[in-house]
Amino acid sequence: MATDIRLKEGLPEITEAIVATYTECRHINHLGHKPLPGRDAIVDILTDLMEVIYPGYVRRQNLHMGNVEYHVGDLVDGLHDKLTQQITRVLRHESEEHCQPDTDCEALAQQTAITFLRRLPELRNTLELDTQAAFVGDPAAKNCHEIILCYPGLEAITVYRLAHELMLLRVPLIPRMMTEFAHSKTGIDIHPGARIGHSFFIDHGTGVVVGETCDIGNHVKLYQGVTLGALSFPRDADGNIIRGAKRHPTLEDDVVVYANATILGGKTVIGHHAVIGSSVWITESVAPNTVVTIEKPQLRIKGPETKPPGGGAYQI
After folding, report:
1. Cα distance between residue 258 and residue 276, in whole Å
2. 107-111, 143-147, 238-242, 275-279, range with the lowest pLDDT
3. How far apart are CA 247 and CA 228, in angstroms?
4. If pLDDT is split at 50, 70 and 90, which confidence band does 307 have?
5. 181: which of 6, 27, 167, 310 lies 20 to 30 Å off by Cα?
6. Helix %, strand %, coil % for the chain, to 5?
7. In whole angstroms, what is the distance from residue 54 CA to residue 148 CA?
């Protein structure tokens, strides 16, 4: 550590200059007495939810039918309090932004938390199908334990499904915080607004992007690097982006999309049982039962020891 104490005399001046920007750059600070949801708190909620969804896989071991009800009851009780607190925070912020000071944010937050928790049994049934789809779709998987413990695709899908339920309940901000945590951990970016059917499988997963207005049917399989994105952003007469429009593609049932394929546009529909090959770029609809591939590239191999089959030399 530096020992020249004289250099520290300039720190108050630095502090004053930084604080001065807090009135100039108002969009990148949140000052006041109404705190926003905390990132660490949201991650803690997700960890508790993962333990409820996948008991015996996350933190607590040695669970069995004799003690699991007590354990899950304790988690659900804590989740009620944690969710109520964090949803209250974001609702208070939203009510302030939209000049609705009479909103009883805490009561609304508690009711939202209860409604969300009531949906967990149905959500577990859907994730059971997602897990089975991963096992059926990947010959490398030895069992479902391996999928739950090791597959980033299932983790990202689980967080998405939890966040999507909160988004359906009109909870602001928190769903995005959840899916962005999963994105940072798994490399898979699924917007919580996307609508995804059951038996969804993402194999390998790194680099997958699923946009906000995507519609994905049942039994759909994506590989790494797939982008389901927007072709363009519609704008109003003043040039501002029109929000809420359908910008991302629709994939019908039983579609398979291989690695690094890019499918763009809100009007683009990939018909059922279609197969989209690697590295293709699609901006128009594809009929059902269609296979889409790019032409086989011409390889050029150059090296002093390289010879083609049958002798001779490669033409470079």
Report:
1. 6
2. 238-242
3. 10
4. low
5. 27
6. 45, 10, 45
7. 8
Please write down the HEC assignment for all residues of 180-248.
HHHHHHHCCEECCCCEECCCCEECCCCCCEECCCCEECCCCEECCCCEEECCCCCECCCCCECCCCCCC
- What is the Cα–Cα distance from 239 to 251, expressed in whole angstroms? 30
One-character DSSP codes across 116-128: HHHTHHHHHHHHH
- What is the model's pTM? 0.89
Residue range of the domain that includes 236: 194-316
pLDDT tens per residue, range 127-172: 999 999 999 999 999 999 999 999 999 999 999 999 999 999 999 9
Q: What domain count does the chain have?
A: 2
8 in a domain, yes or no?
no
Length of the chain: 316
